[in-house]
Structure formats: C-alpha cells, structure tokens
Design a protein that fits this description.
InterPro entries: Class_I_gatase-like, PdxT/SNO, PdxT/SNO_CS. It contains 5 helices and 12 strands. It is an alpha/beta fold. The protein has one domain: 3-Layer(aba) Sandwich (Rossmann fold), CATH 3.40.50. The strands form 3 sheets. Strands 2-1-3-4-12-11-10 form a 7-stranded mixed beta sheet. Strands 5-6-9 form a 3-stranded mixed beta sheet. About 40% of the residues are buried.
C-alpha cells in the first residue's frame, strides 16, 4: 500500500514516519504526477488559505478533488479538515469542498491557546490516546452522511464520510499510531479502493 502525504506545510515527515511504522509505503506529494498510484492521501496541518493557494498555483486542486470524489481515501488533519469542508464558517471561499461539513477556523484561539488532552474514541481505541490541538478548527455542522467519531466539550473534532476522514487534532505529533492504523484500514476497503482510478 502506498500513502501520499501532501508536502506543502505541516507535519509531513511525522505522518510519513507513522505510515511507515505500520508497514505501508509513504511518499511526498508535491506535483500532479506524484498522485499516480497512491492508495490514500493525507493532508497535514498548516495554514489552509496558503495551502489552498498553492494547490491552485500547482494545478493540484481540481485533480485532487476529482480523485477524492472518485473514491481516493483522504485524511485531513487540522488545516486539512478545512481544505476538505464544503463550508467554512464566516467565509465565502472553500477549497476542495468534498465533505459535507461546516468548519470554524481557529476555533480554539491563537497559537498560545493550543493544548493537549486524552480521550478514548469509539471505533478506534478503547483506551485514551493523546490529542494535540494547535490553532485547531472544529466542525459546527454536518450532513446526513457524516459519522461523528468524537466530540470534545460538545464540539465535533473527528468525523468520517465514506472515504473522507477529518480530525481537528494532530495524531502525527504523538507516538500513538491508532489513528493512522484506522486510516490505513479505510484505504483497504474494497468499495473505495483507488487502485484502478488514480
């Protein structure tokens, strides 16, 4: 299995290391040709507006959107969640716009307000795992097809819709591999396999 990690901003190396630790191959995605042959894609954190701008400049935005619509499994962490959302609270511009969620940017405040907590997440782990939030967004609205995976203090911070996974937090910044394992299992589902279309 080959997993692509969008290499623009954020914890690219950390995601790659976690994927490799689970026995899968991982490659950086910087240009259109890099998308060929991948079985899943991770969109790391960073600044969503800047990442969206670079995706457009590199002519990656529409090809990425098309592949996700066709079934490419994708996981957005933090800014990656914002890129995938169909609606961004108080903003008119969206980016990939493939997941039926409404997201609030910087919902937890500034960098100084970043924090870490622990929680068990149904379907992923019965034991508490570390959750790292850095200028994190959260979800303020979901469509009918969206399954909420976790709420923190009433706010939705993890969700999945078909082949699309999003988290407000950064599993790649911890030693825990359970979320990456969950994503690899998502990539293995035959009904959303991208082997023949990507």
């Amino acid at each position: 299995m080959k997993i692509g990690v969008l290499s623009i901003q954020g914890g690219v190396r950390e995601h790659i290391n976690h994927v490799k630790a689970l026995g899968a191959d991982a490659v950086e995605i910087k240009k259109l040709e890099d998308l060929q042959g991948i079985d899943g894609l991770i969109l790391p954190g960073g600044e969503s507006t800047a990442i969206g701008k670079i995706l457009r400049e590199r002519n990656l935005l529409n090809p990425l959107k098309e592949k996700i619509i066709l079934g490419l499994p994708v996981w957005g962490t933090c800014a990656g969640m914002i890129l995938l959302a169909k609606e961004i609270d108080s903003e008119d511009i969206t980016h990939l716009s493939v997941m039926d969620i409404k997201v609030r940017r910087n919902a937890y405040g500034r960098q100084i307000d970043s924090f870490e907590t622990e929680a068990a997440i149904e379907g992923i782990t019965q034991e508490p795992i570390p959750l790292v939030f850095i200028r994190a967004p959260y979800i303020v609205g979901v469509g009918d097809k969206v399954k909420i995976l976790h709420k923190l203090n009433g706010n939705i911070v993890a969700a999945v819709q078909d082949n699309i996974l999003v988290t407000s937090f950064h599993p790649e910044l911890t030693k825990d591999l359970k979320f990456h394992k969950y994503f690899l299992e998502l990539c293995n589902k035959p009904n959303i396999s991208c082997t023949n279309i990507c």
